[in-house]
Amino acid sequence: MIKVISYIVILLLTALMSFFLIFNFSPSFKKSVQLKIVNQIDNIASSRISNNLNAKGSVAAEFINIPIEAREIAPDIIQVTGVGNTHVIQTSEGDIMFDTGLSIQAAKQMSALSEIYPEINLSHIILSHSHADHTGGVKFWYEDGVKIITHVEFEEEQRYLKELETYFWNRNRTLFPFMPESPPKLDLLSTGGIKPNLLVENDRPFKFTKGGMDFEIYALPGAEGSDNLVLWLPQKRVLFSGDFFGPLFPQFPNIFTMRGEKIRKPFEYIKSLEKIIDLDPVMIIPSHKDPLDNTFFINEGIRKILGATKHVHDETIKGMNSGKTVEALMREIRLPPELSITQEHGKVSWAVKSIWEYYSTWFHFDRTTELYAVPQSDIYNDLLGIIDELKMQKLIQNYIDRGDFLKALHLIEIVLFDRNYRGPVLNFENFVLKELLKQANDTTKNSYEIYWLNYKLNNNQERLEAQ
Ligand SMILES: [Zn+2]
Hints:
Elements: H1 2-25, H2 27-51, H3 59-64, E1 70-74, E2 77-80, E3 86-91, E4 94-100, H4 106-116, E5 122-126, H5 132-135, H6 138-141, E6 147-151, H7 154-163, H8 165-175, E7 198-200, E8 206-210, E9 213-219, E10 229-233, E11 238-242, H9 266-279, E12 283-286, H10 295-321, H11 326-332, H12 348-360, H13 380-386, H14 389-401, H15 405-416, H16 425-442, H17 447-466
Parallel strand pairs: 4-5, 5-6, 6-7, 11-12
Antiparallel strand pairs: 1-2, 2-3, 3-4, 8-9, 9-10, 10-11
Helix pairs in contact: 1-2, 9-10, 10-12, 11-12, 14-15, 15-16, 16-17
Zinc ion (ZN) binds next to helix 5.
């Protein structure tokens, strides 16, 4: 019996040892094992999102449900769909890749591509910017000798996104509650670690020819960060836009995103839009969703985005010079009807605030206390101690009756700052948040505003249930 057991143990050990030897010394075997693991993680993540009630109907859920398939969208151009699209441009001397999708979708994107194009021979990977939904697949696609082309600012963007990973992860999880508790530990799946070997500078396009096809890479900062670039195929007049236009077209730009990240320079974005108008594309291939090939729609769309961004930028500057407050400008500045475009992603009033703070930074020259590290909320508890609670509730009710929901919310926030508070003001908060959500849904439908209000409503619900 002991002999049989030791025989089995020896067999198992030999199998394990050969697995580790092959795993470590055969890169292709290692990659195939890693891809299988990644594929399993993706299956779990997708079902987690589909099962999560909060994700239903959201843009994030819509994206994760996009089927992963490879399709020829123009001669010599293959798009592999997913949360972020991966593109392959075929030439007789090798293939160029533009953007690489999410890491957890890499295995599925690779197998979808191999079904219609098994003999891929990559020479360059071009990355539109450093966001994980565009760079996640690099570690899987990369082979020795492949050139990785990015904007010169890519590494700096990658650095701060990595260093602040936990901070941004926690913020994003508030808005997207279906996200796992912490960032992926597996090196292959985590962000960062990409080392570009060809950098493109602003105003200095990088051009090359391969298999008779011309490639021009333009740095167009200001959209989703300072490291944006686009790929232009001049013979075909096709533009690979990455995230330059955002997930919708035409949409008002998300100048500073409310979920955080560094500033996006509004004037750079305007200059970048003008550059695209000069190129005059007949087809735009974004790294999210479907290509656009209606030239009238493309031209009209870009002109509207440019006009709308310029209008909001110039009106904000005018208002700043005339001494108006940022809040007054947030209320007053509107898109004229001829420039009206969706604010589902970027919101005009938030752009006003962003532009204001972009030019004048953190001190609003409003209150002295702004200069010091004691927030107003530090006195809320003492204040409540001397305020008649019933009078406070009556004031909140009056504001609500007059439709002054934001004034009501200011008072509500003072009361609810005490996490142990249980009482009728929680019901007022519930009512006001629902009204704001209704207004958001009836007007801009801005997804980030809706995510935030839902998050606060869930919090409110938990507190109401606990009382
Ligand atoms: Zn993206």
